[in-house]
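hey so i finally got around to running the thing on that chain from the lab meeting. sorry it took forever, my laptop kept dying and i had to restart like 3 times. anyway pasting the input first so we r on the same page abt which one it is
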Amino acid sequence: MNPAAGTSRVAVMPLVVIVGLVCQEAGAAVAVSLIPEVGPWGVVAMRLVFSALVLMPMALVSLRRGASVSWRHVGAFGFSLAAMNVFFYLALERIPLGVAVTIEVMGPLVLSVVASRSWRGLMWAALAAAGVALLGGSGLLPGAEQALDPVGMAYAVGAAVMWAAYILTARAAGAAMTGVVGLALAMVVGSVLTLPVAGVVAGAALLDPHALLLGFAVAVLSSAIPYGIELTALRRMKAETFAILLALAPAIAALAGLVLLDQQLTAAISVGIVLVTVAGVGAVASAGRRAVPATEEAAIETADPEVRGDEGPTHGTPGPG
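ok and heres what got predicted. didnt touch it at all, straight out
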């Protein structure tokens, strides 16, 4: 292989990761437009079902070759995956995309702070807390029209808690199973958990061709494309660099909300998002290779020798639902 070509590919990887983040948040924006048709539960069920359909053929190849399955890990992984997405899309129904993602990333950010085991980590946690306080108290500032929906904020906090649980269960599943087996089966478990509720809540709307098309778009934009891009990036760039780029998710989500959904943010909320984004980057940088995996892709690469190379497991953080 031409060394210059290899260097060029590595150099372009950060941009490719950013493209993956943009696709992810574009998928969330599509989900916002789909929520009035099928509700948050319907969006989650569609995303998980379509994602499972994409991943299961790859998992079946590994299973036919004798890959083992730990159903205990699959169950925990699938539950946390489903709960994280349900809370996130419930939040999107009530608060802007940028705010929901900003609060949600507090889950992996806290784990990164714990992993850093340093005073710098506490400093970044304090900065993030100040950012979230600005979000929550924005409606109390002079000139503010109204506060953010408290129920939507609570759902976003629930998504943050479940994202932290998802990270831990993803790590355990990645260590117990090879390749995409754990993630694919977790998608199936998540589908089984959410589809009955979605059927009761949304009914026949789930089978509407327009809704199905949007649901497929959410799965492709939020899961399939980022999965392919980020898994490729993990093979060609340092885990720390990858994680720092993913920490930009709140800022990219805010821009996606503004451009795609016309979600105008106040100055206070914008500053809060910036503070949490900076804190996320700083916390990941402080944690270094101790940063915890926060994406579906990172969960896979902890168990995939082809991805992690000779340096052992690498870890990415953060990049939402």
